[in-house]
Amino acid sequence: GRMKRARRAAPGPLPLLGLLLLGALPGLWTVLLRREAATRREPDPEPRPPPGRWGWGSSPAARGEPGGGGQKTFRALLAVPAADQEERDDEGRFAAAGLPPPAAAAAVSPVERGIFWSRELEALVPPGFAAEEAAAWLSAARAARVASLERGGCGRSSNRLARLSDGSRACVRYGINPEQIQGEALSYHLAGVLGMQERLPPMALALVEARGRQWEPVREELRGSHWAEGAVVSLTRWVDNLTAVVAPAPWGAEAGAGRRLQPLSAGELGGLPPSQLVELVQWSDLILFDYLTANFDRLVSNLFSLQWDPRVMRRATSNLLRAPDGGLVFMDNEAGLVHGYRLLAMWDPYNEPLLRSVCVFREGTARRVAELHRRRSAAAELHRRYRAREPLWARLGFLSERQAELLQARVDFVHRHIAQCRAQ
């Protein structure tokens, strides 16, 4: 399942707080307005469905609407945790990681060697989709039959929510064109190369064959779906009880202010509650990942919408959801690597400043980027992993030579940026 641009109003002006700081984008609005007509057709031509998917409850509280208490608001996220429940949650996460309680951990710097999140802080990040768990689900999903197909809950009208014979559910995505399914699959496996695949729901490719064993129980439903025989679709594990995510400050309050801001120091980060720091660790990976894949259909699309919606950064971030344990889920990456690479001139004026706004990284992520840079092996590593883990990879093919060069160039750009952060 996935959420496509669910919008939720957050409270008014927010305190300037956070690590990921957005550089100003002067002079870009006029140029982009001239391209607006073409651009607005690119992401998804269909209107966004309302909430009520991904296991969201139907009450305002469950959906994070005003008056509900089910989802933390942006202001609540930024507040020092005073409520007993939040303190207990933080203490529980520290205890599970074998660390001292927050009061004792407050004296520990969240940053090591100037640019890396501390090991103590990384230990608090929710585990996401563990590799063993993901492998087990993928194996079961590939072997299972599709017991039923339902409309709604998985984005555009051509997609379906599948109930599998093993009892699990999956979103079946049928792309507007094959490059969207290819982008989804390649982005998933690039996340594996980068060591952040646990943030993406498990995803496998499937071949639509009305007379095949996998689809036999839903042959009649397939006739009404208008899916082409032999098309490749993606199966993504359905996840319950996900809620919307608002971008951390300063984007919500400062993204349209036209000012270039400098990153906060490690000392200032030390005053933030553990729950916020844990989220910032995940955001640093997300922004780096979206730059490498040139994914414009998440935070970048929100930034673009500032032209006509000055409050958009205070609303939910597209294709990003939060699990009940606080872990971020990087949803719906079909714009990455293929579709996004065709539109670099349009979207890099947003993706590059976002990357430059991050100067603290997970050490493991930085190490993998450095290795891909040193070996010049980004496309080769992705190709190797894709072929080994996706039986249907050849049906969609791999990156073109030009796209492979672009991926390596973006890895090199990220490596240089990390080196600049270290030098500063």
UniProtKB/TrEMBL annotation:
Biological process terms in GO annotation: cell-cell signaling
Region: Disordered, residue numbers: 38-72
Any one of the GO CC terms: extracellular space
InterPro entries listed in its UniProt record: FJX1/FJ (IPR024868)
Annotated Basic and acidic residues bias: 38-47
PANTHER family (UniProt xref): FOUR-JOINTED BOX PROTEIN 1
UniProt-recorded name of the protein: FJX1 protein
Name of the gene: Fjx1
